[in-house]
Amino acid sequence: MAKTNITSVTQDPNSERDAMVRFVREDARHPLAESGNKELGRTGEDLAAQYLSLKGYTILERNWRCAFGEADIIAEDGSTVVLVEVKTRMSNVAWTDQAPELAVDARKRSKYQKLALMYLSLQTRVDTVRFDVVAVNVYDDQSARLRHLVGAYEWDY
Amino acid sequence: MIRDSFAVRTAVLRGVEAIPVVVEVSVSQGIPGVTIVGMADTAVLESRHRVRCAMRECGFEWPRARYTLNLSPSEIRKTGTGFDLPIAVAILGCTGQIPQRDLDGCMFVGELALSGGVNNVRGMVAFERLALEQGLTLVAPSGAIATGGADMRSIEVLTQMTQGIGSLPPADALSQEAEDDSDQTQRLDFADVVDQELAKRAFVIAAAGEHGLLMVGPPGAGKSMMAKRMPTILAPLDEHDRAEALLIHSAAGQELGPLLGGARPFRAPHHAMTLGGMVGGGRPVRPGEASLAHKGVLFLDELPEFGPSVLQALRQPMEEREVRIVRVDGTYVFPCDFMLVAAANPCPCGYLGDPDHPCTCSASRIQTYQSRIGGPLMDRIDVLVDVARPDSSRIIAGDQGSSSAQMAEQVAVARQFASWRRAQSDDKPDRARSVPELGLDAPARAALEGAAKRLGLGGRNIVRIARVARTIADLAESELVEKDHLMEACAYRTRATL
Fold this sequence. Notes:
- The structure holds two protein chains of two kinds.
- By secondary structure, chain A is α+β, with helices and mostly antiparallel strands.
- Chain A is built from two helices and seven strands.
- Chain A has helices spanning 36-54, 106-122; strands at 3-11, 18-26, 58-66, 69-77, 80-90, 129-138, 143-149.
- In chain A, β1 and β2 form a beta hairpin.
- Chain B folds into two domains: 4-167, Ribosomal Protein S5, domain 2, CATH 3.30.230.10; 193-402, Rossmann fold (3-Layer(aba) Sandwich), CATH 3.40.50.
- In chain B, the strands form six sheets. In chain B, strands 11-14-17-10-18 form a five-stranded parallel sheet. A four-stranded mixed sheet of chain B has the order 1-2-4-3.
- The A-B interface holds A 80, 113, 116-117, 120, 127-131, 151, 154-157 and B 1, 29-35, 48, 64-65.
């Protein structure tokens, strides 16, 4: 698997909520467009994790698994534990309306809610949780657009 | 761990009654979100989204935390959107974004728009009544009109809460617009109805004695026209009756304007009406047309076209002057003290007995048609009057008969006399009196006996004739019911074609 490293982060000139990211892929055998969804998703998660670290978050876990499923990233923002779902799509600069975050549906949310309960029960340090979504539009092998939704959803029942 | 809780008063509408409810909120850390407990229905659960958007839109913060809301007492089913405002206030108060002082002495009811505006909900009159009983200040949407003595404040936007309760303006009392509305109904006049003096007399009798009235006549005779003018000869609503009518109209989500102007309710439901629509029902239970006509007139045009079950359902409420609806969660009681005015054609084509038009209906059709209005419901209609088509030359000449003002005067005189007469004895209402207690003189009694034998009248019919005769005597300001009064009353009981 290729290793992905962010080289620069800039504000998207078209949208104040988005960040444009440039990156390099090390040891890549094929271009992203030919590597399949698994490789694409892995690249998106790498980008998201590095982006969150740059924003000052502490990454606690990557691909944290338990009986209920897997959380892409578990990070710490101040005194809050953040459970991050990363959604990545191969995209084109012209497709401005493509929104990977729409794929975080009710089933996915309820999975994260169970994961949150599980994670809280396994440690005693923090008891405040937040659910974030990072949507990644990958344009080519060097650039992508990142949208970080803080507190994307809550748990009403 | 931060933990805090807060409570705000509100109320839920059940039938026409408001039941006090307390919204308790508890804030804790953990998985962010809102949980509502306390038998809330979907409309209440959806308030989470409205409250969240409204608070953000108004510039308030929505601290990311776990909110547990309890609507107490929890055993009552909570319905409606009036919980939006109290829930928002509870969360704002709990998170210290609005002054908490004075909130305890207030009751909040209102629906939130996504923009933070506060919208009106039905049943505001009931909420106001409850606030008055409990000595609370009602904080209501700006569309709500103050009708009772409660301290009522009006709130337009959620942001006004930051200034405290004291800065909210008092709610509008009776508005100018409402008075204009009532003018319009007052403009109807019996003088517009040409050549129907007999029927108008029947209307005066019905109005004076609160009798049910049935008009039978061909199309175009002016039946609906006269029925619409019935409220103009009734005394305006007094304070108590108006409050009751307002309560029902408000709970059903109907316009309050005409009532505030003092006009009596006039309901003319279409004959395709369902049973639930007539006596009340639905979920949540709402009052029906019979209750909306409380202290006013219920006009059933084309009486035989109404469903038999709908008409039969009216019988018991008409006797008891209230509707009882039994549901799993208890009994709902709606008052329905209305005057019944009904109209019917003599046969399906409408021309039976008309000297100028031949009737095209077969005998069996006529019988089926007439049998629908016969029977038990007819027993509850005291005054039956034939309405013939008016003379064409009189219509062209624009003849004017008695006007609403004259007829209202007669009704007022008769009512005054009747209450004086009743005060002389035991003050019982006439409908609770037996025949001997109605004051028939000897010739009248003999005439009643004769008529009863000749027409084969049942017990209820005899009592009804005697009561109508009593009203006619009141119109003549006569303490005793004389033979003439009784004979006139008999004329409103029989009909050649029915």
